[in-house]
Structures are given as C-alpha cells and as structure tokens.
Specification:
alpha+beta; Porin; Jelly Rolls; 5 domains; 12 helices; 17% helix; rod-shaped
C-alpha cells in the first residue's frame, strides 16, 4: 500500500508542477508566443511523467521532467486538465500548482530529495492515510487546513483554520475566499477557564501590476463561546513578493456579559496594523511587526502594544514562530508556536519541498488573513453585584477591595466585603444583596459577604434569602437554606441557628447535622451540631438576643419571605389603678397575625409575683392585646416585667407563616393601685388590698391591719357573706398543756410582752404541741390565721390580747364583728387550760378554756 501511495504522490506532484509551469511562464516577464505542441508531443510528455512516477530514483528523471514541463507549458490550463483527466489521473488541478511547478523550473530539483525524506519519515506514516481520507470525504473545508499550537509565559493556544476558495477569475486576477477558524485558549482572560472562539470571514483579493502586487479587503465575524461575546471586523491588506501590510478595525456587537456573581466582561473595540518582510537570501524566514490598541471602557486606560514575530517555514507545510509582545497593561510576553499547513488538493511531496526562493504574490492569493482572532475583553465588577445599605445606625463600616467605607443609608458597595456593626446600644445595619436577599446585622457583630456565601464571624444576624442559593456559614457549621428566613447568633465558637420560616440543613464542621423547619433551632458547639429544644434556656436566650438587637431596633420587614415577628417591646395600652381593674398590654407585630386554636398569654411578674395576661383582642391585626386584672397583692407596685409570650396551645400566623413569638424581657410602668392606707389613714379605712386599718399595734406601735370579715367569711363587695368558722385555741381536747409561752394574766392595756406580741405568739403556736397526749397536736385558731391567704397577703397571724383590745376599741370603725356577747380569741395564753379572749359587746377580758369556741379575726402588720 505504501508503494502505491508513493507512486500516486509522485505522479500528482509531477502533474501539479506541469500546470504550475504554465502559470509561472505566464506570470513571469512577457515572452514571445510559441506554437502549441502537436498531439504526439503532448502524449509523449505525459508518458514521460508516468515513467518518472514509477521510478524510485528521481535524479535520473529530472531532465525528462524539465522537458515535459516545457512542452506542456505551451498548453492552456484547460487543455492540460482535459488530457490529465483523459489519462485517468482523476482530479482537477488547483490553481496553486503554478507555484509548485514554477519553483521546480527555477532549479529546485534537489528539493525532491528533501521532500521525499520528510514524506517517508512523517507523511507516509501519519499524513498519508489522512490525505486519502480528506480527499475522499468530499468536504470542501478539508482541502486547506492549518493546525497551530502555541505557548506563552502564562497561556497556551491551539487552533484549526481552513481557507476555502469561493470564486476566482484567474484571467482578471479576482479571488474570493472564505476563512474559518477555531481556537482554544487554555487560560481565558476573564474567568480563568479554557475558552473557545470561532472566526468566520470573507475575503477578496486582486492581483495588479502584472501580478506583482496583491491587494485585498476582508470582513469577519467572531464568537467567543464562554461568555457569548460577538465581534465584527473590517480589514485591508496588500503585499508584494517581499513586503506586506495589513490593517484591521474591530467592533464588538455584544454588551456586558456575566462571568459569575461578582464579575462581568465585554468585548473591546480596537485596531491593528502589521507590516511584514522577507529577504530573498532567506526565503524561509518572514518578519512581522504589529501595532495595536484596544479601546477600554469606563474611563480605564486604553490598551496598546507592539508585537514582533519571526516565522521560519523550511517547507510550505511547516511553520515555526517565535515572538514577543510588549503591552502597557501587562509584562512582556514571549510566544512560541508551530503550525502545520496542509493542502489536500496538492501532492504531499510538494508541501514538504524545501523553500529556495521567494513566492510570487500570484501564489499567495489564498494566504491566511493576518488579524487578531482572539476577542479581547475588559472585566469589571458587576454593577448588579453592589450591596445596598437600606438602614444603618451606629458607627458601622465595611471593608471592601476598594478600602474601608462608613455605612450610610443608600450606600452601594461591592462584594466581597466584611461588615462590622458597632458595639453600642441600638446599632444596626441592614443590607440588600444583589439577588434581593436581606441581611440584618445586630449590635457588636461582624459578617463577611461574598458571592453565594454569607459568613457570620461573630454576633447576631438575620437573613432572608433572595432569588439565588446562598450558603450561610457560622463558626462551627454550614447552613444550607431552602427559601428561608433565619436568624443566627454566635460568640465566635458556639453558634445557634433558628428557622423563622422555610427550612435549612445545619451541618457541623466536626460532626452532626440537623434538618430544621419553622420555629426549630440547632446549636453548634466545637463544630458538633445538635438540636435545641423549643422553650429551653438556650432557645429563649437566642430569641431574646435577636429580639433586643435586631427585631426591636431595625425597621419592620414586610417581605413575602419574612415571618411575622414582634417589632416593639410590649407596651401598656390601658392603665389600671384599683384592684379588679384590667391592665392592658399590647404587642405589635411586623404584619397582621391571626390567632386560632387557643388563648395566648403574656407571662408577667409584678412585685416578684408571677402573673398571666391573657389575650383579649387584636386577632387579624398587627397588634395583639392582653389583659391582666389587678389583685390586692399588686398594691404598691407601679411596674411589671413581661417575661415572654406563651402560645398556650394557640396558632399565631400571618401571611401563611408561623409568627416568631420569642421576645426579650421588657419592664413596663403603670400607675398602680392608690392605697388609701398609705401614709396616716384613719382607723377603719379599707385598704387597696381589701384589708382594714385597725390602728397601731402595741407591739412596736406599728400599723396593724385586719381582715375585712371574720374567719370563714368573704367580702362580696358590700357585705361579709358565709358562715363564721369556729376554732378552738388548742386541738379541741381536754388534754391540757401549758406551753412554754409566758402567760398573760392581766387585762390590757399593759406592758407585758406576752399580752402584746401576737405575731411572735402565733408563729410559736403554729408549730407547738397543744396537748398532753402523745404526739404533736395543733393550736387550731393560730394555725387558721397562719395559713390564711387573703387580700393578696399570706402573713396573717392570731392577734395578742393587747392587739385584740385595740381592735375592740375600734370595732365600729373596723366593722363586721359580732357584738351580741360573743368572744374573740387572742394568741395570749393564760395557763394550763385557758387562753385570753375579749367579748366585743362590752370589751370584757377573760380567761376562756382552750377547747372553747370564740370567733377569730386575723391581723397582720
């Protein structure tokens, strides 16, 4: 097979040279006309060619080949091609054969040996089969192929180019052809990835001055696939056999194209001019000098530079080049390349024939158009990548690539950026991201914002996702959001994340992962993620931090993705000044909420006592109202603390989302109950808590108060109702026992401690044994007062004789005593079987048996 290929290649080369001879003779200096050879001579010339093609040694056929070429040179191209086909050689001779044969007639028979050596070592093994395949494919753009590979200091390039004649008028010297190419830059100038560019051009050239000058014009369309940049160019060129010049103007068609979330690029307009030259003594060398400029945008300095290149082409099929580019916007750059040029319409041997002379311009009408095939671009940060400050308070700042900026409402700046919010009360920063996401940063916090990533370094932040996927990083974990409203808190090592709406996956840096939905929370501690129970101290602390540093500070968020949340501290909306009145406390949300399925409550404390304010109204609005009825125990208090909001089984929703209900504690003031007993009240004054001022106790001369009614009765607002409860002083038995208390044996008033110290007596009797029987038996009357909880108080006691005497003295003012001869117990003991009592009808003081049944009225002071 190799022998047949060599036979065919040599035959084709000889035929090409013959037709090229015709062109060479015609394009040289004018010659006198010669008569056409006769048919016998022509036939003999072709026979000579066939014999030469079958011969392995070419040297002995040189003379015959020269003579045959001279014979056939007097034929026109059409006649040569006709006889070529008639003899079964099978394909049309291309126009470029003139060059090949023309070079041979200039004395280049020795180049046959050089070409044969290259062909045997390279073409027979690699290109021979490819040549046959390309010829047999019938694809026109495989007829002329150039493959080039090059490297620079920082980049690599590979390209394939094809030149296809479309129309030619050889007699008039007109030529129209198409040049297409594809090239790959291994390191793109915009995003660093490999990039592909295609170029499609149409060129026209004209031979002038007896084929000694070639001029042309061209138009190209360029397309870069990576960013879809488009460009057109118009160019002109001219050359002689030694010198050439080309100029091109480039104009972009595409606008700014997105590279990624941060950058975008645009093709640049520009122009270039290139001059070239060759020396007859070194036809294989060509020098090029190219000047160019690219018109930068947005006030950036224009790009301009010079390129100098030397090409060495020992044979037409191979070109080696080296050059340097010096540009104002980058360091000088070296480039080395190798190009293989294959014309599958021409014999392989001729394409590897050593150059020994300059080519005629007539043989270069289909040379490649010299131009910049790579689309030069300018990269900038996307205008749409700017972050916009929508709200800020405090000395907040952002560190960007451009420097440090003081945040102000309306300020735009680019990612990446690190935002720091001041450590001062009320400091806040809210930033709208390029995709519509909203980031709110609380006091003493720092956040890093990059394309697709928000990182909480420390502090508190709330993030509502926009139209793109954004990952939120916190110390110890990564949060993947799914259309989400979240808040995060971190001290730099331990981080908590709560889902306000939507869902997230929180993956620990070391271990653990939690999938969270609305109202759920997880914590990362030392990189290990675990769920946090709703209502736990960690959960409530997180919610309180977000409430106090973000929700109550920043303006309300009403975006569709934002869950409703309390935007203000609770506030008193209806005051109360008396026991039984309702104190109203309202809580405002960011949007209207609806309550269903239960009655939410505000948990309060008043004077250290736990209280509950139940929902009284506001469902369907953005303001819920809760009510608390003041009690006697609240007397004297003018402030309360709201501890939290308890859903109490209810659902609180707004805009189809569960509301955030964790709130920071808040202290509220109200008028409080005005106590008539404050200061120096008159005896018998009913106090705010419902008790009655009875006068001063002889034990320390301090104000003493008694219950509104006797033991067993209650006040209904107008009278004491119910049955008085009778209580024995001891356990009701006759097992008499004289307690360790000092006995009171004289009538009051007196200075005997046992007759006056009711609080001490009662406290002792509450736990002391009252009976001589085994075990501990109660003192029933004292215990009844000690255990009493009424009028909001629980510090009641059984009054001593002297205190009971003050009560008898003021009985009418105090009111509601039995005055029909009934006795009332005191806590003063008389002896073994008796205790002191007073009859309220006349004040008679006596010793009553301990198991008797006097009435009881409790006191406190």
């Amino acid at each position: 097979m190799a022998s047949r290929l060599r036979h065919f290649s040599l035959l084709a080369a000889a035929g090409v040279c013959l037709l090229g001879l015709c062109a060479a003779v015609a394009l040289a200096s004018p010659q006198p006309a010669s008569p056409s050879p006769d048919t016998e001579t022509v036939s003999e010339a072709f026979s000579v060619l066939e014999r030469i093609s079958a011969t392995d040694g070419h040297a002995q056929g040189d003379a015959a080949l020269r003579e045959s070429c001279r014979v056939l040179s007097r034929l026109g191209d059409e006649e040569v091609q006709r006889q070529w086909k008639a003899r079964g050689l099978g394909f049309d001779l291309p126009f470029s054969v003139r060059s090949l044969c023309g070079q041979f007639l200039l004395g280049e028979s020795s180049s046959l040996d050089f070409g044969e050596g290259l062909k045997r070592t390279f073409a027979d093994t690699l290109l021979g089969e490819g040549l046959a395949l390309a010829r047999g494919s019938g694809l026109p753009y495989l007829s002329r192929i150039e493959v080039e590979g090059g490297i620079t200091d920082t980049n690599g390039q590979f390209s394939i180019m094809s030149i296809q004649p479309w129309w030619e008028d050889r007699k008039g010297g007109h030529f129209l052809f198409n040049q297409v190419s594809w090239q790959r830059e291994t390191l793109d100038t915009d995003d660093g990835d490999a990039d592909d560019t295609v170029n499609f051009g149409l060129a026209y050239r004209k031979l002038l001055n007896n084929d000694t000058l070639l001029v042309g014009a061209n138009m190209f369309f360029d397309h870069q696939f990576d960013q879809n940049h488009n460009r057109v160019s118009l160019g002109v060129d001219a050359r002689t056999d030694r010198y050439g010049i080309a100029a091109n103007r480039y104009q972009p068609l595409s606008k700014w194209r997105t590279i990624d979330a941060l950058y975008e690029s645009r093709a640049l307009a520009g122009w270039d001019v290139e001059v070239s030259g060759q020396l007859p003594e070194y036809p294989e060398l060509t020098g090029f000098v190219r000047a160019y400029t690219w018109d930068s945008l947005l006030g950036v300095k224009d790009i301009y530079g010079l390129n100098a290149t030397v090409e060495w082409s020992p044979v037409p099929a191979l070109v080696f080049s080296g050059g340097v580019t010096d540009e104002n916007m980058r360091d000088p750059d070296l480039r080395f390349a190798m190009r293989i040029r294959m014309n599958f319409d021409e014999p392989l041997a001729d394409q590897f024939r050593k150059r020994t002379g300059l080519q005629s311009v007539a043989d270069r009408v289909y040379d490649r158009v010299r131009r910049e095939n790579t689309i030069r671009i300018q990269v900038r940060k996307r205008l749409s990548t700017g972050l916009v400050v929508t709200e800020t308070s405090g000395s907040n700042s952002a560190v960007t690539d451009e420097g440090t900026l003081a945040l102000a409402a309306g300020l735009s700046f680019n990612m990446p950026a690190t935002v720091t919010v001041a450590n001062s009360a009320g400091a806040i920063a809210r930033i709208r991201l390029t995709d519509g996401g909203i980031l709110t940063i609380g006091q003493n916090s720092q956040v890093r914002i990059e394309p697709g990533v928000v990182t909480l370094i420390t502090g508190t932040a709330q993030y509502i996702s926009g139209s793109t996927n954004v990952t939120v990083n916190v110390p110890g974990g990564t949060i993947t959001l799914l259309g989400t409203d979240i808040d995060v808190v971190s001290d730099g090592s331990t981080s908590t994340v709560r889902v306000r709406d939507g869902a997230v996956t929180f993956a620990g840096a070391a271990s653990g992962s939690a999938s969270l939905s609305a109202s759920q929370m997880a914590q990362s501690s030392s990189g290990a993620v675990a769920a946090v129970a709703t209502g736990s101290p960690t959960y409530n602390t997180h919610g309180s931090t977000v409430s106090s540093q973000i929700e109550r500070i920043a303006s309300p968020l009403n975006e569709s993705k934002a869950a409703p949340y309390p935007v203000q501290a609770p506030r008193v909306t209806a005051d109360a000044t008396a026991i039984g009145q309702t104190l109203s406390v309202s809580l405002k949300f960011s949007k209207a909420v609806t309550v269903s399925g239960g009655t939410p409550q505000l948990n309060l404390t008043i004077g250290g006592n736990s209280r509950v304010a139940a929902l009284t109204g506001g469902s369907g609005s953005d303001d819920l109202t809760f009510g608390y009825v003041l009690q006697a125990a609240d007397v004297g208090n003018t402030s309360l603390t709201v501890i939290g909001l308890n859903a109490n089984g209810a659902s609180i929703t707004g805009d189809g989302k569960q509301a955030v209900i964790t709130i920071a504690q808040a202290s509220l003031s109200f008028t409080g109950i005005t106590d008539p007993c404050a200061g120096a009240p008159a005896v018998g004054t009913v106090c705010a808590d419902g008790s009655v001022y009875a006068g001063n106790s002889p034990d320390g001369n301090v104000p003493m108060f008694v219950t509104r009614c006797d033991l067993g009765q209650t006040w209904d607002g107008s009278a004491c109702t119910g049955t008085r409860t009778l209580r024995q002083w001891n356990d009701g038995s006759s097992n008499w026992l004289d307690t360790p208390l000092a006995n009171c044996t004289t009538n009051s008033p007196n200075a005997v401690a046992a007759c006056n110290e009711g609080k001490g007596n009662s406290a002792f009797l509450n736990t002391a044994d009252s009976s001589s029987a085994a075990g501990t038996q109660p003192h029933l009357a004292a215990q009844a007062c000690e255990s009493l909880n009424i009028h909001g108080k629980d510090d009641w006691y059984l009054p001593a004789q002297g205190e009971l005497y003050v009560m008898w003295q003021n009985r009418l003012a105090i009111d509601n005593f039995l005055l029909g001869g009934q006795f009332y117990w005191s806590s003063s003991e008389h002896g073994n079987n008796g205790a002191r009592s007073i009859r309220f009808s006349d004040g008679f003081q006596s010793n009553n048996v301990k198991n008797g049944n006097p009435r009881v009225r409790c006191a406190r002071r």
